[in-house]
Amino acid sequence: MRTGYEQNAGLLSISSPFNDGDLLLDALEGSEGLSELFCFQLHMRSPSTSLDPKKIIGETVTVNMQVPGGELREITGLVSRFIQSGFDRDFAVYQAELVPQCWILKLSRDRKIYQNKSVSDVIISVLSDFEITIKNQLATTYEPVDYIVQYDETAFDFITRLMQLSGIFYFFSFSGGDHTMVLADDSSAFETCSGAATVRFFPETGQSNPLDTVVAFSLESAVQLKTVTSNDYDFTTPSTSLEGTDEGTTGFGEVYEFGAGQADSAGAAAIAKLRNNAAAVGAKVLRGDSFAYPFVPGTKFTMTEHFVEALNAEFVLKRVQHIARDDHYSNSFESFPSTVVYSPSINALKPKVSGCESALVVGPSGEEIWTDEYGRIKLQFPWDRDGLKDENSSPWVRVSQSMAGSGFGSIFIPRIGQEVIVTYLQGDPERPIVTGCVYNGENAAPMQLPANQTQTIIRTWSSKEGTAGNELRFEDKKDAEDLYLHAQKDMTVEVENDLKTTLMKGTETHIIQEGDRSLDIQKGSEIHKVQATRQVEVVGDENHTNSADFTHEVTGDYALVINGALTITVTGSITVKSDADIDQTAGTALSLTAGTAFTNTAGTALTSKAGTELVAEAGTNLTNKAGMKLLSDAGMQIDQTAAIINSKASATQTVEAGALLTLKGALAKVN
Q1: pLDDT for 661 beyond 60
Q2: Fewer Cβ atoms within 10 Å of its own Cβ: the N or the C terminal residue of the chain?
């Protein structure tokens, strides 16, 4: 191979990791554009057939284009491919592909969550992770977004999607052996093309044309979209319209977009405006061919000397296709009037999630339940490598319920540590919703399976640090059907109207192992009806209090058996009435005491009898009276003692003794 060959002072030269003279650049072709990754194919020769690809793959290479008296045009990029394509008698032939540094974002695919960050912050963060040099020329302040997800897409596709949906575009600038990715969202970022600020329209004549000439220029006009409407839904303000529209002065048709994530109708109108601006860029396209090698997308030039006066105006370069070989250079370009408000077209769509996936319910350390006013929960997705399984692993995620109304419905809040099933509204990875829970190897079912497969259970768990919980269990095994209800502590049943319980057959048992039982009927009656026997057994004291009358009616016999004493205290009268006999029997003494009068009345005979002694005593007077005859009879002796004893008969009085009659006194008077 030929040696000692060096690059001459031609149009093209290259600087690479190899030694000077190891690579000689013969030709360059490629394209660059707004919101596009530039890609250049380099055709080179080398006196060496053994250049090591490892020295150049992934490394930076700079291509310089310059004509005598012209400005230096520098193209610096990363070598993504290096090919040895052949050789001739003097040189080996090599090819290389030159791309921007951010091209490596295409090699990384991930699932990643960003919370409470603006779109611009996320884009810059991703580029920073890959050490991409950027220049931030964003004119808009972007508000933080609750939830942004990179979902099974490359880092490049992810930030491209974010930029396109937000109206952010990019282009590259080159200087000092490096390139910079410029982020912009406003036409003010378009600077005048250095070295080709003004170009002349000069149709090609077959001769060598100056480098400041445009040799072909065509204007392409197309039907323009007229109306864009953007709409969305926010569950926190479900009745609030989030619809906004942007309508052009000309054009046809309407594009309706739903789910862009706007917070209000003004935000929706702004999104619609971005979409309309992107469509308007294609309504008037100017294409041309030129020899202006300084042409770079994202810069402006002014056309002069065109025979159509309207085309002698300022344009923004959107895309440039370069061809340079030996000392010849030409390009084809696409541009639009600088009066057009530029927004990037949307071709990077958000990934759609098909089906469901599982996640782990998470929250702060020490908590068992973590929710907000909407019953939302926090999740840790198994694919999330950045989450720490805490309250910061995700934003609040809604939980689907079987019924949800205004102040009514059902709610089950999944707890920390449970595995849940997550689906996505409209397949949007940034709109997850929990639709159910599943058991796993660490969270087993509340009964042994399949042994108890006929059981249906709702069992909760006391929090915090509970060891059991409330439970409702249905047993559907044939001939062993059972409904079990367990309250771990208190149980409250509230019925607005009637409560009816029917026990068709069997026994009803109420057991209070410890505690009290209270029945409070605040208004109304209580009726107990027992067809057979009723038994009440009280081990301790029993008190009955009636604030009104008390009536106890017994159709058969009534027996009251008391093993202790019986005390009846009545503030009014006591009446005991029997249609038959009344027997009162005392094992020892029987006392009847009246505060004033005491009356014993019998229709025929009244008998007072004592086994040994009968005492009738009054505080003042004691009267024994009979309608016909009063008999006092004692087996041995009757004693009457008083200071004065009067014994008087209205007719006849007989004093008689069977043996001896003794009358004795200090003074005896018989008259």
Answers
A1: no
A2: C
CATH superfamily of 352-462: Gp5 N-terminal domain (2.40.50.230)
Residue 132: what pLDDT?
A: 96
Is the predicted pLDDT of residue 633 greater than 70, yes or no? no
Q: pLDDT at position 583, please?
A: 80
Identify the pLDDT of residue 526: 85
Q: In terms of Cα–Cα distance, which of 83, 84, 78, 73 is closest to 98?
A: 78
pTM for the whole structure: 0.79
Judge contact between 135 and 124, C-beta under 8 A: no
Give me 147's structure tokens.
């939830």
Strands across the sheet containing 134-137: 134-137, 178-184, 169-175
Identity of the highest mean pLDDT range in 7-21, 104-118, 453-467: 104-118
Q: Report the C-alpha gap between 80 and 469 in whole angstroms.
A: 62
Q: Which CATH architecture has domain 104-222+282-337?
A: 3-Layer(bab) Sandwich (3.55)
CA 313 to each of CA 54, 200, 203, 667: distance values in angstroms, whole numbers, following the listed order: 48, 11, 17, 170
CA 26 → CA 29, 110, 312, 331, distances in Å? 11, 40, 35, 17
Domain ranges in the chain? Answer: 12-101, 104-222+282-337, 225-281, 352-462
How is residue 65 written in tokens?
A: 């284009």
